[in-house]
Amino acid sequence: MCGIIGFAGKTEAVEVLLDGLERLEYRGYDSAGVAVVSTDGKLQVKKSKGRLSVLRTLLEAEEPMSGGIGIGHTRWATHGEPNDVNAHPHVGQEGKIAVVHNGIIENYLEIKNSLIRKGIRFSSDTDTEVIVQLLEYYYKKYSNLMDAVYAVLNRIKGAYAMGILCSDYPEQMLAARKDAPLLIGYGEEGNYIASDVTALLSHTRTVTYMEDDEVAVITAGKVEIYDSDRTLLEKEKHAIEWDVTAAEKGGYAHFMLKEIMEQPEAVRKTISPRIVDGKIVLEELKGTGDFIRNVSRIYIVACGSAYHVGMVGKYTLEKLLHIPVEACLASEFRYSEPLLGESTLVIVISQSGETLDSLAALREAKRRGSKVLSIVNVMGSSIARESDYVLYTWAGPEIAVATTKAYTTQMVLLIMLGVYLARELEQIGQEEYDAIVEGLLRLPEQIKQVLNELDNYQKIASRYFNHNSVFYIGRNLDYALGLEGSLKLKEISYIHSESYAAGELKHGTISLIEPGTLVVALATYAPLVEKSLSNIVEVKSRGAEVIALTTDKTVNTISSQTSEMFVIPEVQAILQPVLGVIPLQLFAYYIALNRGCDIDKPRNLAKSVTVE
Ligand code: AGP
Fold first, then answer.
1. How many domains, in total, are found in the chain?
2. Residue range 243-261: average pLDDT?
3. Do 443 and 544 lie in a common domain?
4. Which of 334, 351, 356 to mutate to test the pocket of ligand 1 (most atoms within 8 A of CB)?
């Protein structure tokens, strides 16, 4: 969704801003803009609808912007269509103050109407413009920028991360946050603000996370952060481990392909530090034995692909722990009546750690007395900070909108958690435990093996990319996996696709199967392969074309029905989806490539969904 970058430094700000915005492009946007204040207090603003290249062309055509203090923004439209006027930064009618903002101001209409009654003219349809017009209004009243900022923060309701420039303060920028991520970077050339750490990696890896209701005053040489009472705070600085190359394409055509190919390493980094002397060690859960023994129910709450990991977890954890485990969509969970309480564990899964629905579900769970354990990729993100326990996936930055390495690392970590809990609860025998641990350690090499079959995925995709509807079917863990395969395909290739529990087909969906319909049949879950075969026969006999995903142990059974196959090594049933997802990711990738789609930035989608 929207992205913010800001710079207060000794060098020209505009290039730093454009570089930061480029690194934020992956979040999804439809317009972009920058504002720079010169040393003599001239506020310069340029913004435009469309990609950053349009903004660059605009900037090149005019006199260069000069000044070391600036803010930039990529906007993903919520209030008001994507156009030049609605793009950020927004400037007040006096032309003194500029603001970039992520989030939504819920009471913007009420404020807008009251300002209009005072004679203030609005030019955009955005909620953000009320911030800047209100700021100018209070600035005129108090003649002090900080007073005006606090007055605005007291008046607005909703979520915000914002960067503020004022032409009367040409040596500083201000920043504020509530319920939307914002961090401060400390660099040699100056100091930064950003909504996302990837925008800062080429400048600094030393950051501070702003908390709700904090306000920061940032100059080239100093950062001061205040709380809601205007008390100066001593904030901790954090070192980011990701390096800049991790957020670059490194010779790959797309970030998505690069991230798919990084999975052996991402999975290894997530697993191996957590296996010590043949035992799964989750340091993060040290001292939680009493609590764990009391857990009587687990909810796994997440959105999109992370929810699909939750579906895998539902089958796996329930089987391992013998307690009820439910996978819930975060957007539904928060408005339903989940059975929360002290003996319920809520597991929240999120790559970004900023997904609003997941964060809201987490807060609801905590409010109602449950402990929250999160599986998160981005360090210091809101979900990580607000959880009782955090397990980090060590996937590194994920730039492509379609998640791949975050999904696999979330899945291995959830499986590891399940096995760890099973041991704590004495629900797993030593032999089974040892076999799973050995299996986990073998996964990175086996993922490499699956990745070696690129030619096959490419060849099969080139035969089917013209289909306009695809069904994924599978049972048990294969059903959970099919959900992800289907989502991958639709989000990047725009092909309509559905995923069904294979046994459900006969209850309605089979009416859609006709000669030529493409069905991706998942048959990797060993205990149910025979049943999956029957489902393949059912759809084939109605004319479907079938691509099967199966293992080297069951390939002969399945090959009696189709010759189009993705074959992966057979491993323990609970680890099988980790390998199974790889061909599905690559199938979707090559289909989208054949269709000429914008793979890394699919239409209408944003990497991190920070609005409801
Ligand atoms: C999947 O490819 C998507 N980009 C999307 O479904 C994503 O998994 C979902 O929005 C959740 O995001 P999160 O993991 O950052 O919370």
1. 3
2. 88
3. no
4. 351
